[in-house]
Amino acid sequence: MNKKNDISKSLNNKEFAQAEKSEKSNSFYKNFFIKYGIIFLLFLFMFFVIFGFSFVCGIVQKNNYKKCINKTLETYYEANSKNKMFAAAFVNPSFFPSNNLVIYKLEDSKSSANSENQYVILVRIATVYGPLPVLFIYNKSINEVVYVDIMALNSSSKNRILASLSTTQIALWKNKLLELGKSYL
Q1: In the predicted model, what is the mean pLDDT of residues 11-26?
Q2: What is the pTM for the complete model shown?
Q3: How many CB atoms neighbour CB 180 within 10 A?
């Protein structure tokens, strides 16, 4: 009987050792997945935070562009005594998801008949003072691009920048925007 107890004890010890070994390996994998799962979740959280902020900032940037464009158009129309027109819808073609060229459709404040085929195009042009946003109006019906102004600058710095901005640069961009308008708008 002693032998039987010894054998059963030795089996129990072997089973116990195997169970202990499998428990250790299970706890190792459990700790491993908990530790690296938390790290993965942190990276995932950071990704969504960055993506969320960039999405919200894109919306805010489009609205700020629209406000600045409307302000610049207001001064342009007052200086040229024309009917006021305002930037309405963001119309960037899908192939141009850029901040260097932004397109808005123009709407007349009184009727939409006059502004059916007019677009405001905001382009960043390289100047001596760095790239600055310049506003153009593209009229699709008569196939014409008109230079409006440099956006959102005070008058003292605007005069210096306008002096450094050459007419050939403006003419070059008018031709480029005319081709873009013919092809894609």
Answers
A1: 61
A2: 0.63
A3: 19
